[in-house]
Structure to design on (819 residues):
């Protein structure tokens, strides 16, 4: 299973691009990336999901981790989450903690 | 910046000492029981008093055969507990279970069978019934599979609500039945997520506590069968038969197929709390889904049969539950199991309380005899984690033990007041010889709960068992043919009256009487002292077509029909206004029983009784008319007086009204004989009565008056 992340920082915005399959085995890599993102002054954390082919419940837990890792004021934006991912996030109530978007905020 | 003392303890016990079946392992921690994520691995711990060996069985999710079997080395056993930490597991993708080997010398009370794979009784999630109604694969060697779980839900500061008992209005509902019908209009019908969409409805109705029928993992296919007459598939719809005590039912979660039922249920509790509504779980600890000698082996039976079940001297199952077996609740092991389960739901899921199905069983000893001082009930009553939880007993069982009023309570337990239901039903249908008993029920059943207080009485007229409200006024007899048992199941003593025709009718007079009778019931329920409980759907007169035991139907018969919200707007308005009235009048819901004194110094006794003549109630056996006056303070702290007259006679009666202090007037809040919208007012905006000396109460009708100062014009 392949999963890669890239992290870019522009001002107070951190963008993590997720590519491949995010599940229990790859969630660790994601968490480490979130750890890195949390270093420094962050106002917005963008998770670009357009190339994410699969997100398991452990992957969703990674989002919870991201929320808890970031300080309270940090906005978390999910870009191009699939319908299923968005639906699941809503059903477990996590949508209060994130913003859905179709494009990476500029 | 303050220095924080930190220590990274991750390394403690986090390295393997040996390999079993190719997996890195080390001796585990005995506590807690179950499977716990620890640094680098998973700690498995399981107890059996007589087993000689235990093997951990691992499956890749959904695979028919195990991916590995790891015999737990005997040197890992401490006492009767086998524990092992397994490293580098894909904790999301595995399912686990155990093979338990019995001793070579067979004890007739045991049922060890290492050919079966047992579920973990402490498993916090199960797979196998992830989607409701999906036909199970009968060839599955391990149908209910234990799963590993995570404890990372973001509660955002949520806490149990701790609403004072005096203020509670409970609403009993079935998670699936409440929104499964397409008329619910929710995005995810029949699920926890769907129920969230109906929270605004419940808030508007005015209830502040939902009691959810069983949500612990159960199998809707248990005893599933086709009704030979109708061809309809029958299910275990209600779920009073637990498979997994620590796991929310996956099939009730829209996200069950992703294994996220725990998150979805937690979100449900969080959303209820945000709306100011408590969540009470109906829990079934009297028996399990393993049934009798012929039932399936799921966990307890193969793990430690003689510990977990009450057995006859011959080794058969006692059946005080009427369902095949009886959990041996007062054995020290099971007591601890039940307590840790309740603590888990209270702390991990933030639930506000529990209603215990057939709770009289929880007071029986291992031989089935009722105990004077049952250790389990005592432990629950004083448990530090459960301090704020409602503990509600269904204080009877199927073995004939009836303890309404005498349930071992430690001044802590409340009870479903079965006597309230029976008395009020008899009164409403016009039985003679009930009036004195009715009066006792209206003031919180002091004969039963004097020492404990009125809130120990959970007052109800209908619940999931028996007729619902619409059927109580539409049927004299049960009509359970659809259950496929030739109408032999279900209670026969319904204390119901069909108002002149059995079942559906076009007769407008009968229909009017039925509506009036339903309103009469709601008047009594919501002006009675104690905690009222309403059955979901009764507020819109939902019918179950005379079926008083619809446990096996997953169909329109049991689903809430949301079209009724419009069709029976009149009833809905009446009930929600009655709830609002109760809220506005603390004198109706005080914790102590009234005793005829004047504790607030308003010049009137806290309760007084009246008849055709004020201050002259008719207590004779033939009496079908009683009026109750409650005096105390309203919610603003001003003196106020509530007068409730109930006439179950088939003739109108004119009642002389008790006089009020100077400056106060009687106002008409409700008159069930009046056509809507005159049947009920908005609390606080009741019209003043033109005649302050008397009022006519119609045949089979109720009147509610409030005495207060005339509002300045």
């Amino acid at each position: 299973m392949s999963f890669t992340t890239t992290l870019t920082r522009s001002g107070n915005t951190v963008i993590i691009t997720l590519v491949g399959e995010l599940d229990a085995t790859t969630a660790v890599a994601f968490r480490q990336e979130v750890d890195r993102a949390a270093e420094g002054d962050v106002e917005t954390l963008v998770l670009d999901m357009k190339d994410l082919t699969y997100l398991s419940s452990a992957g969703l837990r990674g989002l919870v981790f991201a929320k808890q890792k970031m300080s309270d004021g940090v906005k978390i934006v999910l870009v191009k989450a699939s319908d299923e991912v968005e639906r699941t996030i809503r059903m477990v109530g996590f949508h209060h903690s994130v913003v859905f978007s179709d494009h990476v905020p500029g | 910046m303050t220095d924080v003392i930190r220590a990274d303890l991750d390394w403690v016990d986090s390295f393997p000492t040996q390999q079993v079946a190719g997996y890195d392992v080390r001796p585990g921690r005995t506590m807690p029981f179950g499977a716990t994520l620890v640094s680098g691995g998973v700690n498995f711990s399981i107890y059996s008093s007589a087993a000689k060996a235990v093997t951990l069985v691992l499956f890749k999710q959904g695979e028919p055969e195990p991916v590995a079997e790891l015999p737990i080395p005997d040197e890992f056993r401490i006492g009767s507990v086998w524990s092992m930490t397994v490293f580098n597991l894909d904790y999301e993708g595995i399912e686990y279970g155990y093979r338990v080997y019995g001793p070579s010398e067979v004890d007739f009370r045991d049922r060890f069978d290492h050919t079966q794979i047992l579920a973990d009784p402490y498993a916090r999630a199960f797979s196998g019934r992830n989607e409701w109604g999906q036909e199970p694969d009968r060839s599955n060697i391990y149908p209910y599979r234990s799963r590993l779980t995570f404890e990372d839900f973001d509660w955002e500061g949520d806490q149990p609500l701790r609403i004072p008992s005096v203020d509670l209005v409970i609403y009993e509902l079935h998670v699936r039945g409440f929104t499964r019908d397409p008329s619910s209009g929710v995005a995810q019908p029949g699920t926890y997520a769907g129920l969230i969409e109906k929270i605004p409805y419940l808030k508007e109705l005015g209830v502040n506590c939902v009691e959810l029928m069983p949500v612990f993992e159960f199998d809707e296919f248990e005893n599933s069968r086709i009704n030979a007459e109708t061809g309809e598939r029958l299910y275990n719809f209600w779920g009073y038969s637990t498979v997994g005590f620590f796991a929310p039912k996956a099939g009730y979660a829209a996200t069950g197929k992703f294994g996220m039922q725990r998150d979805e249920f937690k979100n449900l509790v969080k959303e209820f709390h945000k709306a100011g509504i408590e969540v009470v779980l109906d829990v079934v600890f009297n028996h399990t889904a393993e049934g009798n000698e012929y039932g399936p082996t799921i966990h307890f039976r193969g793990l430690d049969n003689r510990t977990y079940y009450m057995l006859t001297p011959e080794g058969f199952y006692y059946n005080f539950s009427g369902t095949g077996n009886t959990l041996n609740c007062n054995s020290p092991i099971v007591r601890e199991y039940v307590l840790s389960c309740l603590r888990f739901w209270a702390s991990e899921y933030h639930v506000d309380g529990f209603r215990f199905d057939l709770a009289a069983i929880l007071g029986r000893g291992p031989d089935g005899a009722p105990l004077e001082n049952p250790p389990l009930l005592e432990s629950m009553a004083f448990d530090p984690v459960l301090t704020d939880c409602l503990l509600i007993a269904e204080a009877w069982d199927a073995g004939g033990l009836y303890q309404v009023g005498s349930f071992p309570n430690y001044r802590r337990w409340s009870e479903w007041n079965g006597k309230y239901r029976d008395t009020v039903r008899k009164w409403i249908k016009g039985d003679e010889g009930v009036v004195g008993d009715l009066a006792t029920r209206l003031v919180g059943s002091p004969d039963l709960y004097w020492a404990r207080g009125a809130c120990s009485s959970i007052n109800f007229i209908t619940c999931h068992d028996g007729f619902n409200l619409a059927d109580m006024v539409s049927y004299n007899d049960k009509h359970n043919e659809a259950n496929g048992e030739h109408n032999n199941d279900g209670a026969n003593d319904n204390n119901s009256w069909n108002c002149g025709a059995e079942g559906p009718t076009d007769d407008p007079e009968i229909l009017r009487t039925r509506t009036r009778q339903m309103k009469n019931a709601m008047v009594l329920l919501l002006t009675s002292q104690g905690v009222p409980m309403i059955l979901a759907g009764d507020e819109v007169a939902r019918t179950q077509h005379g079926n008083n035991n619809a446990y096996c139907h997953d169909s329109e018969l049991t689903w809430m029909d949301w079209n009724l919200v419009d069709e029976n707007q009149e009833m809905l308005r009446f009930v929600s206004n009655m709830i609002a009235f109760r809220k506005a009048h603390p004198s109706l819901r005080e914790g102590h029983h009234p005793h005829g004194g004047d504790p607030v110094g308003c010049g009137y006794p806290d309760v007084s009784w009246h008849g055709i003549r004020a201050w002259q109630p008719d207590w004779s056996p033939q009496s079908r008319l009683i009026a109750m006056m409650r005096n105390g303070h309203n919610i603003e702290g001003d003196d106020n007086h509530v007068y409730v007259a109930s006439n179950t006679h088939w003739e109108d009666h004119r009642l002389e009204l008790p006089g009020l202090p100077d400056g106060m007037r009687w106002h008409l809040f409700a008159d069930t004989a009046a056509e809507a919208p005159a049947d009920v007012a908005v609390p606080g905006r009741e019209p003043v009565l033109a005649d302050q000396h008397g009022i006519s109460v119609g045949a089979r009708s109720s009147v509610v008056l409030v005495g207060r100062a005339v509002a300045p014009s």
